[in-house]
Sequence to fold (97 residues):
Amino acid sequence: MESLQALMQQKEALELKIQQARKEQTAAAVAQCRELIAQYDLTEADLFGGRTRARAGLTAGSKVAPKYRDPATGATWTGRGKPPKWIQDKNRDDYLI
Fold:
C-alpha cells in the first residue's frame, strides 16, 4: 500500500496535468470559435439569440403603478416591498384603487 504522502504527490501532479490540458483545450476551442465567427460573419445576436446585456437592463428598476390608496391621506402603495403603516394588519381589499 502506498503512503499518504506519495498519494498526495500523485494527486498534485494530476491536478497540474488537468489544469494544463484544460488551458490547451480552451485555447483551441476559442480559436475555432473565432474562425467560425469570422468565416460566417456572425454577430452577437446570431450567437446569443438577439438579447444583449444592454437590452436586458432596460426593464430593471422600472416603476410599477400603485395598487392601493389611503383614502385619508391619498398616499399610495404598489403592493411591493414592506407595507406602509396605514395598510398594515388591515384588509387590503378596502384600499384597492
Remarks:
- Residues 1-61 form one domain.
- The chain is about 45% helix and 5% strand.
- The helical segments are 4-40, 44-48, 53-56.
- The mean pLDDT is 88.
